[in-house]
C-alpha cells in the first residue's frame, strides 16, 4: 500500500484548510492537485481508491477544519447551543438564538442524509480529475451567476446594513474629531472632560480601553449577534433551501460555501449574512463528515499518522485564518474573483489533463 509523504500532507492540508472556506471547492482541489502533479502524488493521493491512505487523511483534514471554524465561532456556538437547549426545555422557539439553532439543524438534514446514503457513489464516480475540473468550471459559473443575477432583496439588504453602520459610526467620528480639535488647541494635550473621567464608584476599571485586538474581536462578536438577528427574520423554508443547495458540494469541484451563499442571496440575504450562515452551517457538516469516517483513520491510516497530524494542523490553522479574512471580505466585496479563479483553473486543468 502506498504511503503519504510529509510534503504531500503539508501541501494538501494547507490547501484543504483554505479552500474549504474559500468558495472554490476543497474536494475539487483534493482531487486535482495529485493528478496535476502526477508521479507518486497521483498514486498516494487517489481519493477514488477504496484502500488509499488519502481517505483517512481527508477525515483528519475535515475534523481539523471544523475545529478551526469552532475556534473562530466558539462564542456564537455557545449562544446557539444554549438556544437549542432552552428551546427543548421550554418546548418553544422564541429567541433569535433558539430559532437560529433550529434553522441550522434543519438545513443540515438534507446534505447529511444524502452524504450518508450516496457518499461512496459520489466519491467514486465524481472523484475523477477530469470531472472535478469540469465541475470547477461549473462552480465558477454558479458563483458568477449568483452575483450577476442577485435579487433586489439581497442588494437592498446590503444597502440597509451599510446605512446602519454609517449612521452608527457618525457619533463616534464626531467625538474623535472633537478630541482631535481639543488636543490641537491645547498644544497636543487633550483636555480632561467629564466623559473622559468617570465618576468614582461607576465601575471605571471595567471601562478601561481595550487593546486593539480585543476591541476588534468584540466588534466581530457584536456584528455576529446583529447578523444572527437578521438571519432569524428568514423562514425555516429559506434555511432548508440553503441546506439543500449544499448537496451539490458532494460533487468534486462544487463549493459547499459557494452554493450556500448563492442560495442565501437568491433568498434575499445580504452577501455578508449569506456568508455567515454558510460558515456556521459548514461547521457541523464538516465535523460530522469527519467523525462518520473516523474508522478509516484506523483502517487505512496505519503508517501515515505523522503526515496526517502535520497536514491536519495546517488545515485547521488555514481554516481559522481563512474564515477571519472572509468574514471581513464579504462585507464589501463580491464572489466574482472566486468565480474567475474557478473558471480559469478548471478550464486550464481540463486542457492540461487532456493534452498531457
Structure description:
It is a single chain. This protein is mainly alpha-helical. It has one domain. It is built from 14 helices and no strands. The longest helix is centred in the first third of the chain and has 38 residues, at 53-90.
Residue windows where pLDDT falls under 50 for at least 5 positions: 188-208
What would you call the structural class? mainly alpha
Q: What is the number of independent domains?
A: 1
| Shape estimate | globular
Q: Summarize model confidence as the mean pLDDT.
A: 84
Rg to the nearest angstrom? 23 Å
SS element count, helices: 14
Element string (H = helix, E = strand):
HHHHHHHHHHHHHH
Estimate the helix proportion, in percent.
over 70%
- Major beta-sheet overview: none
Q: Strand tally, please?
A: 0
Please report the distance between the alpha carbons of the first and last residues. 27 Å
Amino acid at each position: 500500500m502506498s504511503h503519504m509523504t510529509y510534503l504531500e500532507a503539508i501541501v494538501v492540508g494547507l490547501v484543504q484548510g483554505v479552500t474549504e472556506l474559500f468558495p472554490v471547492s476543497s474536494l475539487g482541489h483534493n482531487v486535482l492537485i495529485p493528478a496535476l502533479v502526477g508521479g507518486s502524488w497521483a498514486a498516494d493521493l487517489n481519493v477514488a481508491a477504496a484502500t488509499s491512505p488519502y481517505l483517512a487523511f481527508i477525515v483528519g483534514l475535515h475534523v481539523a477544519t471544523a475545529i478551526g471554524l469552532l475556534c473562530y465561532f466558539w462564542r456564537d456556538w455557545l449562544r446557539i447551543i444554549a438556544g437549542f437547549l432552552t428551546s427543548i426545555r421550554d418546548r418553544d422557539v422564541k429567541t433569535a438564538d433558539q430559532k437560529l439553532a433550529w434553522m441550522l439543524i434543519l438545513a443540515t438534514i438534507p446534505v447529511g442524509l444524502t452524504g450518508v446514503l450516496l457518499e461512496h457513489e459520489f466519491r467514486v464516480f465524481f472523484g475523477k480529475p477530469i470531472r472535478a475540473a469540469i465541475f470547477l468550471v461549473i462552480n465558477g459559473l454558479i458563483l458568477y451567476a449568483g452575483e450577476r443575477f442577485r435579487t433586489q432583496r439581497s442588494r437592498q439588504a446590503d444597502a440597509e446594513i451599510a446605512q446602519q453602520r454609517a449612521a452608527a459610526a457618525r457619533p463616534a467620528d464626531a467625538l474623535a474629531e472633537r478630541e482631535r480639535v481639543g488636543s490641537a488647541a491645547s498644544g497636543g494635550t487633550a483636555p480632561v472632560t467629564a466623559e473622559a473621567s468617570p465618576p468614582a464608584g461607576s465601575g471605571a476599571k471595567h471601562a478601561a480601553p481595550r487593546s486593539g485586538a480585543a476591541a476588534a474581536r468584540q466588534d466581530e462578536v457584536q456584528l455576529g449577534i446583529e447578523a444572527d438577528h437578521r438571519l432569524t427574520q428568514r423562514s425555516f423554508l429559506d434555511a432548508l433551501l440553503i441546506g439543500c443547495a449544499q448537496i451539490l458540494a458532494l460533487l468534486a469541484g462544487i463549493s459547499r460555501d459557494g452554493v450556500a451563499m448563492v442560495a442565501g442571496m437568491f433568498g434575499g440575504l445580504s452577501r455578508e449574512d449569506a456568508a455567515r450562515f454558510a460558515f456556521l452551517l459548514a461547521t457541523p457538516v464538516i465535523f460530522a463528515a469527519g467523525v462518520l469516517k473516523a474508522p478509516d483513520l484506523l483502517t487505512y491510516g496505519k503508517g501515515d499518522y505523522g503526515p496526517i497530524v502535520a497536514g491536519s494542523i495546517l488545515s485547521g490553522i488555514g481554516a481559522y485564518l481563512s474564515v477571519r479574512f472572509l468574514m471581513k471580505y464579504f462585507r464589501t466585496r463580491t464572489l466574482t474573483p472566486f468565480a474567475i479563479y474557478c473558471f480559469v483553473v478548471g478550464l486550464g486543468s481540463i486542457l492540461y489533463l487532456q493534452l498531457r
